[in-house]
Write a structure and sequence with these properties.
alpha+beta, 6-stranded antiparallel β-sheet
């Protein structure tokens, strides 16, 4: 990973936009990041971390999801933004991040919160341009993390080397070292293995306990099945020997239960024999009591039959008289039907005669029929008159229609004449409107062609005015820059002259007794020159030269911008001319107004042409309508004369047919009603005569049938006749008496019943009590036998279940023993783990050993071969071993704790440790090259010689094509390291000053 350029805006202490060119700083391989306390040196590193991961290290992230990163010196309208240009895994990327921004509202007062935004771009060398990759926070974070192969914590420890953290790491105990190494090397998977083993141990232990608990529960069930006759082992779940004790107790209990089942079977057999004998005795007593009750009931029924014998004989006589009357019933029914029919026919005849005139009151059926025929014949003669009357109605309607057509044609003709009179004036007006619209369209086209040049000239005039103002400001800036450049150059020349005047004192400062002088070569220096007050050294001269070069660069930049503005002004003036902008604006406005009016008038062309076309069509339609009206008027005259002649003939015919009636239809309706009434009356008279004859015949037949059946009068026969319900009831009573008499005689004739009546009275209750007692004894014996069978079955089932549980638990218990041993070893609690080293600690110890080996290479060089870092897995006190770190002193040959190192020794030891850790983590992350590193503070604790050795080590990193940035307050480093990035603190925020290696 190599950083190229960093741009920050309104970030941390930087109120404006600041840019860091890492390519220039990294050219020498070693550069210095310095500035006063609080100026924002760490913020530069925070910006790099924020661009990559969207957050900054530790507590500097603050709250509000990144809103605390915004500079308090920034203008309200300036948004915080960080852009980082870097190369990683052979890809040139640019990451831009904007944290959430609480900006002023565009309308009204107050603020609104804009969400965070992120962009990722990649440089395409083939196309020579940047291409967008993503705008998703999550996708960009995953992409960067995957390319770097490090989390944010690892990046901050490996790329941004915090010396204070590694000094604490040297002095920390094993637990603290384990936490840091765990974060860097991500050994959570080994901790997860420990947790997984512990979880599996708890799970298998719980399963074993559950299995033993289930086995013990089966033992309790067997004890309950055996009526608490089983003795349970006094062992808890999980204790050894529980399974064998339960199975042994179950075997004893099953044997006892089978003996009890044999005894219960014998008792049940004896109880069944006694119950069968008691049941047979009960059946005999019940049969004797039944026969005795049957004989007594038969005697009581015979006595009741003797009492009802007289009523039976009377019912027999009534039934015989009813059978004789049934022979007369058909004649009675015929007489009643004939009488009802005659009454209905007489009433209908009376109703029909009431509707006739009095002249037909005494007429018979034949006279009424003759009168009906005469009325029908007269009605038939009126058919022709009715047809003539319908035709006359049609003629009148047709004549009225002709009158309506004549009036409509007159109105239509009048309207057409009126419209045609104004046709020429209307056509002329419409043609004039079309011509005007066509002229407006031509004008609009001309004005449209002039609009764009006029607007372009107006834009050029506005640009000309703006560039004129920019030119004035640029001239002022160039004048100011030239003045500043002259002053800076004069100041540099003054300081250079002063330094040359005092160069002897500067050279004398480096003289050493016995060493030759760089100027004269003498080895003795009796009177070296001394520095006077106000002496100018090389650093002051270089600062003045740098200030002069920067001022000259700003002057050149301002002159270049002035030239660009003047060229743009000349181009705008050539295009716009000398016409004032206001005059061009008025001309454009006037042109736009005339163009809008012409377009509005031209828009009516289509409508005017359409109206002219519709008017021509209407003119032709009106002419055709006038001609058609004249033709229809001529044809109506002849038609009207024909209708009048036909009407006169029909009216003459109808006058003859109507007679005294108002119309032929009225005369016809009168004749139709008379014909219908006469016909109905004749039919009713004939029906009444027929029903009278049938009633007389029915009376004669009824008298003859009653005499033959033995009745004196027909009424006597009618009284003796029974309806169906009374006949059924009487027959039922006779049949019931006969059936009862036969049943009683049959019971009294039974031999068994008579013999039982002669026996002593039976006692069923006593026999029932004896049988119930036998049943109870049998039920108790069966219950005891069933209980014994169930006890044996339950004990067999539970014993088999317990045996299966014991077999199933055997491999589970073996698995628990194996997992428990592995979990104890991984957790460091097993007696087999002599150093009580956890699995994660073991892995971290291997990593720490690699880090110590990598750090020793640089530590030996920094300490002139004196110190070597070694890993120790010895236990400290009661704690666990594996993460110890010692230093071997080559001067004494002894190994001691890193906490015994001095301040300077601790610094370069921690620096060596940090660099070694960076190499190991880089290899662990997949070999991603880390071409840019930062080292934060700690150089002030070193003497000159050690500082030189440390810088030599850092400078050697260039062999791996790395650049190292040193963050330090040490003034001597600014002399030793020429490539510098200075953070300048000010009231309006901090700024950055960059100086390359030259």
């Amino acid at each position: 990973m190599r950083l190229h350029r960093l741009t920050v805006t309104a970030f941390g202490p930087f109120g404006g936009t600041q840019t860091v060119d890492f390519d220039e700083l990294s050219a020498a391989g070693l550069f210095l990041l310095h500035g006063p306390t609080g100026a924002g040196k760490t913020s530069v590193l925070d910006a790099v971390c924020y661009a990559l991961y969207g957050s900054v290290p530790g507590a500097r992230q603050g709250g509000g999801q990144g809103t605390a990163l915004r500079s308090d010196h920034a203008a309200p309208a300036t948004r915080t933004e960080v852009t980082l240009d870097l190369t990683v895994a052979g890809r040139r990327l640019e990451v831009t991040r904007q944290p959430p921004w609480e900006r002023p509202k565009k309308r009204g007062t107050g603020t609104t919160l804009d969400k965070a935004q992120t962009w990722l771009r990649e440089y395409d060398p083939t196309a020579g341009a940047w291409k967008d990759l993503s705008r998703s926070h999550q996708e960009i974070g995953e992409e960067i993390t995957q390319l770097l192969g490090m989390s944010r914590e690892q990046f901050c420890q490996v790329v941004l080397l915090p010396q204070g953290d590694f000094a604490r790491f040297l002095r920390a105990d094993a637990e603290a070292r384990g936490k840091l190494l765990g974060r860097l090397f991500d050994t959570r998977r080994f901790a997860d293995v420990e947790k997984r083993l512990a979880e599996r141990r708890r799970t298998t232990e719980a399963r074993v306990r559950d299995g033993d608990a289930e086995l013990l529960a089966d033992a309790h069930r067997m004890q309950q099945a055996a009526d608490d006759a089983m003795e349970l082992p006094e062992l808890a779940p999980g204790e050894p020997g529980l399974a064998e004790a339960v199975l042994s107790a179950a075997a004893v209990t099953r044997s006892t239960a089978r003996e009890q089942l044999t005894v219960a079977a014998c008792t049940l057999t004896a109880a069944e024999s006694r119950q069968a004998a008691a049941a047979r005795a009960l059946d005999g007593v019940r049969e004797l009591a039944r026969l005795q009750r049957r004989f007594d009931e038969a005697q009581e029924r015979a006595a009741r039959l003797e009492q009802g014998a007289e009523a039976y004989r009377e019912a027999q006589a009534l039934m015989e008289r009813a059978r004789k009357a049934e022979a007369v019933a058909p004649a009675l029914d015929l007489r009643e039907a004939s009488e009802a029919e005659h009454r209905r026919a007489a009433a209908a005849e009376a109703r029909a005669r009431a509707l006739l005139p009095e002249t037909f009151a005494d007429a018979g059926a034949a006279g009424l029929a003759a009168a009906a025929r005469r009325a029908a014949e007269e009605l038939g003669g009126l058919d022709s008159a009715r047809r003539a009357e319908r035709r006359l109605t049609e003629l009148l309607q047709e004549r009225a229609g002709l009158d309506r057509q004549e009036r409509a044609d007159a109105d239509l003709l009048q309207e057409a004449e009126a419209w045609l009179d104004g046709w020429e004036e209307r056509r002329t007006a419409l043609q004039t409107r079309v011509d005007s619209a066509q002229q407006a369209a031509a004008l609009a086209e001309q004005l449209g062609a002039r609009r764009e040049p006029a607007q372009q000239r107006l834009r050029a005039a506005r640009t000309r005015d703006q560039l004129a103002q920019d030119t004035d400001r640029a001239v002022d800036r160039v004048r100011t820059a030239r003045d500043e450049t002259l002053r800076a150059k004069q100041h540099w020349l003054d300081l250079k002259e002063q330094r040359l005047n005092g160069i002897a004192a500067e050279l004398a400062a480096n003289l050493t007794d016995g060493e030759p002088c760089a100027v004269c070569g003498a080895t003795e220096h009796p009177a070296p020159a001394r520095k006077v007050a106000g002496h100018v050294d090389r650093e002051a001269e270089e600062h003045a030269l740098t200030a002069y070069q920067r001022a000259d660069e700003r002057r050149a930049e301002d002159e270049r911008r002035l030239g660009e503005v003047r060229e743009a002004l000349a181009a705008a003036t050539a295009e716009a001319g000398d016409t004032p902008t206001a005059q061009l604006d008025d001309e454009c406005a006037d042109l736009e107004e005339r163009y809008a009016q012409a377009r509005s008038a031209a828009a009516e062309l289509h409508d005017a042409q359409e109206r002219l076309r519709q008017a021509g069509q209407e003119h032709e339609r009106r002419l055709a309508a006038r001609q058609e009206t004249a033709v229809r008027t001529a044809s109506r005259v002849g038609h009207r004369e024909r209708l009048d002649r036909e009407r006169a003939a029909l009216e003459e015919e109808l006058d003859r047919a109507r007679g005294s009636s108002d119309s032929v239809a009225a005369r016809a309706a009168q004749l139709e009603r008379r014909t219908a009434l006469l016909t109905d009356a004749a039919d009713a008279a004939r029906v009444a005569e027929d029903t009278a004859r049938r009633l007389k015949d029915a009376d004669a037949r009824l008298a003859d049938a009653a005499f033959r059946a033995g009745f004196e009068t027909p009424q006597a026969a009618a009284d003796a006749l029974l309806d169906r319900a009374a006949h059924r009831e009487l027959q039922r009573r006779l049949d019931a008496w006969q059936h009862e008499e036969a049943a009683v005689r049959a019971v009294l004739a039974e031999a068994d019943t008579a013999a039982a009546a002669r026996e002593p009275r039976a006692d069923p209750d006593a026999a029932q009590r004896a049988a119930d007692a036998a049943v109870r004894r049998l039920r108790d014996a069966a219950s005891a036998h069933d209980a014994a069978e169930r006890r044996c079955a339950d004990l067999d089932r539970l014993s088999a279940r317990a045996t299966a549980s014991v077999r199933r638990l055997a491999p589970l218990r073996e698995e628990y023993d194996r997992v428990a041993r592995m979990a104890g070893l991984a957790a460091g609690t097993s007696a087999d783990n002599e150093r009580r080293m956890r699995l994660e600690s073991y892995v971290l110890a291997a990593r720490l050993e690699q880090v110590a080996a990598a750090a020793t290479v640089r530590l030996r060089r920094m300490s002139s071969g004196r110190y070597t870092l070694v890993h120790s897995d010895d236990r400290t006190g009661r704690g666990r071993s594996g993460l110890g770190l010692h230093v071997v002193d080559a001067w004494t040959g002894r190994e001691r704790d890193t906490a015994t190192l001095s301040g300077g020794e601790t610094f370069f030891a921690s620096l060596a440790l940090a660099l070694g850790l960076a190499d190991v983590v880089t290899d662990e992350a997949g070999g991603v090259r880390l071409d840019t590193l930062f080292i934060d503070e700690g150089f002030g604790s070193l003497d000159d010689q050690t500082l030189d050795e440390v810088l030599d080590v850092l400078d050697s990193l260039r062999e791996r094509d790395r650049s190292v940035g040193i963050v330090s307050h040490v003034a001597d480093l600014r002399r030793r390291v020429h490539a510098q990035l200075e953070v300048v603190k000010g009231r309006s925020g901090s700024t950055l000053r960059q100086r390359g290696a030259g």
